[in-house]
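Quick log. Single chain, no ligands specified.
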Amino acid sequence: MTCWRHVKHVLKRLAVNWVVEQTLLSKLFAYLCMCGLLFLPHISQATGSGSTAWYATHQFQAADIKKLEAGRVVLQNQTLEGAPAEHVQAFIIVDAPVTHVFALIKDFPQLVAYAPYVENIEVLRQSEQQAVVNYALALPFGVTSRYRLQLSFEQHGLSRTMVWKSVPWAGLKAEETIVSSTGYWWLEPGQDDGQTLLTYQTITDPGHVPFGLGWIVDILSRSGVVDLLKSTKQRAEQSWEQR
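-> predicted structure:
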């Protein structure tokens, strides 16, 4: 069974057995980490031979390639049947090197300046390998959301990854936070050192969403991810040009 097929199998189990979502999400998180360790070196080798191999590795369709080359986001979204979790994967090409883009997304305090809806960032601790960060989002109509992420940073050949999972934040009420979030940033070099294929994947359970506030799910998953990748691309390219 391929890595991706196995992930989809876990996702199916998650949808059917949502009552044990925390255990399955932990297993999925661990498996995604393992997949990265096994699969990313292969990606690094493929990207070294040019953009054709780069696209083929991800099996992009012609329409996807057209979007990427136009600087747009390619979004893949899957709602887990019978469960509130949203599984989102998105891609964008950034005209800046992997090392520059990775340094940008690791600079958590700067997220407030360009990431949509981010109101405040508190870095509890950070090293070269990991970090624990508190996020505060200011959503429309005065809605706020807070959550804490544990993140790890890895290098795989010429590629970089930032993998995260949500961890408990004592003192928050259920309506103030999300139930769970796992995911990763994955940065691969393009045809040369001046370009990055940026991948963002997340599985988020926002928890109970009152009737009429379904847009919260969209912001925390679909449209929010698209806006985040667009703003990250813009910020990285501007800062790279101004270096």
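The helical segments are 3-16, 21-47, 51-58, 62-69, 98-106, 111-114, 215-220, 222-241.
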